[in-house]
């Protein structure tokens, strides 16, 4: 019912597992990244109320960062789209990258992070040698963000725009082929790498994220020490699979039912094109109250900040499902 359902190729991966040749409107909200707190309060904070049959679809009820029994909303665990895509491509090895792959924590259009890319770029070169650095689309729009990595001997690539249906496949290709995956904060990509059995490393100073400050960095160190200290690959893999919801993965028919794809209804279509944008605008303007305890890194921002990129918040055509032989595409090389 909202554009976030189709971020990063997630709805595409679910459609493939469900046996569909086209993505449909989801009857609910789909978690679009790993979180250190409840997805209800992080990703779904603009939606204190949902239409009648809509569900809050999360990856896992076994994550360390939140307790579903104490959540203010009912949630339905379905497993992460990454695990579905990983299973679909399990028999397809990828060529080794031949280097470490780094996923620096990224800015957003609304929230700029307080950290020094140059410091991390130099440390990456010293500890891992020339690496492949996958920048988030939010950072690719800024030439100075790309330049700092290139100047330190690294190669910059991209998984695509956040609504690119092959985004997730490019990430999977990178983490599956990496010598190890590096970041300056425990993040979604690090969890993906650990779930694939790829070595990981987290280093660099704490990252300050808008109104949340360094709370996210502190919390990840406290709750997931295995990712910040020496730990066996299988230990990390087991934890990552729990965080990503391996035990909640659904068979195709049950997944179609959970997403509302087992029936045709006008509600999700109308919500996607009209209802959700209006609700989000109301939350931004303060007309609609966000849930108590919402984790909003952009708290305190003027509503005008959302108008700097007006089209990025609007719905668009649903992503296309790629052919089965095109699921693990090479990462994109951005134009300089």
Question: What is shown here, in short?
Answer:
The chain has helices at residues 10-18, 39-42, 81-88, 117-128, 137-140, 143-151, 167-177, 188-195, 215-223, 233-243, 252-259, 266-285; strands spanning 28-30, 55-58, 75-77, 101-102, 113-114, 132-135, 155-158, 181-183, 200-202, 208-209. The protein has 336 residues and is of the alpha/beta class.
- Low-confidence runs (pLDDT<50, min 5 residues)? none
Q: Percent of residues in helical segments?
A: 25-40%
Shape: globular
End-to-end C-alpha gap = 36 Å
H/E series: HEHEEHEEHEHHEHEHEEHHHH
Strand order of the largest sheet: 7-6-4-8-9
Query: How would you classify the quaternary structure?
Result: single chain
What proportion of the residues form beta strands (DSSP E)?
A: 5-15%
What is the number of strand segments?
Answer: 10
Q: What structural category do the secondary elements indicate?
A: alpha/beta
**Estimated radius of gyration:** 19 Å
Number of helices: 12
Q: Mean pLDDT score, rounded?
A: 89
Give a quick account of the main beta sheet: strands, pairing sense, barrel closure: 5 strands, parallel
In words, what does this structure look like?
- This protein has 336 residues and is an alpha/beta fold.
- Helix content is 34%, strand content 9%.
- It is built from twelve helices and ten strands.
- It has helices at 10-18, 39-42, 81-88, 117-128, 137-140, 143-151, 167-177, 188-195, 215-223, 233-243, 252-259, 266-285, and strands at residues 28-30, 55-58, 75-77, 101-102, 113-114, 132-135, 155-158, 181-183, 200-202, 208-209.
- The strands form three sheets. Strands 7-6-4-8-9 form a five-stranded parallel β-sheet, with helices on both faces. Strands 1-2-3 form a three-stranded parallel β-sheet, with no helix packed on it.
- Helix 1 crosses helix 11 (252-259).
- 45% of the residues are buried.
């Amino acid at each position: 019912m909202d554009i976030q359902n189709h971020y990063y190729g997630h709805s595409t991966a679910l459609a493939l597992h469900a046996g569909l040749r086209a993505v449909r409107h989801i009857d609910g909200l789909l978690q679009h990244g790993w979180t250190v707190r409840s997805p209800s309060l992080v990703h779904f904070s603009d939606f204190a109320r949902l239409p009648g049959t809509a569900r809050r679809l999360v990856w896992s009820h076994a994550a360390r960062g939140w307790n579903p029994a104490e959540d203010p909303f009912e949630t339905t665990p379905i497993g992460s789209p990454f695990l579905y895509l990983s299973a679909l491509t399990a028999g397809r090895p990828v060529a080794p990258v031949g280097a470490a792959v780094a996923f620096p924590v990224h800015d957003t259009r609304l929230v700029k992070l307080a950290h020094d890319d140059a410091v991390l770029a130099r440390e990456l070169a010293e500890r891992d040698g020339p690496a492949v650095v996958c920048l988030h689309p939010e950072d690719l729009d800024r030439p100075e963000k790309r330049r700092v990595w290139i100047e330190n001997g690294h190669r910059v690539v991209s998984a695509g725009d956040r609504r690119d249906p092959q985004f997730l496949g490019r990430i999977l290709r990178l983490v599956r082929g990496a010598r190890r995956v590096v970041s300056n904060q425990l993040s979604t990509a690090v969890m993906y790498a650990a779930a694939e059995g790829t070595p990981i490393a987290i280093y660099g100073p704490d990252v300050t994220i808008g109104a949340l400050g360094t709370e996210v960095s502190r919390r990840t160190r406290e709750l997931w020490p295995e990712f910040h200290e020496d730990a066996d690959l299988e230990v990390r893999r087991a934890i990552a699979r729990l965080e990503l919801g391996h035990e909640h993965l659904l068979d195709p028919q049950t997944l179609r039912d959970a997403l509302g794809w087992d029936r045709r209804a006008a509600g999700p279509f109308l919500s996607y094109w009209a209802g959700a944008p209006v609700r989000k605008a109301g939350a931004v303007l303060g007309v609609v109250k966000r849930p108590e305890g919402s984790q909003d890194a952009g708290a305190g921002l003027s509503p005008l900040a959302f108008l700097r990129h007006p089209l990025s918040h609007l719905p668009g055509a649903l992503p296309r499902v790629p052919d089965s032989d095109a699921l693990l595409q090479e990462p994109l090389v951005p134009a300089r």
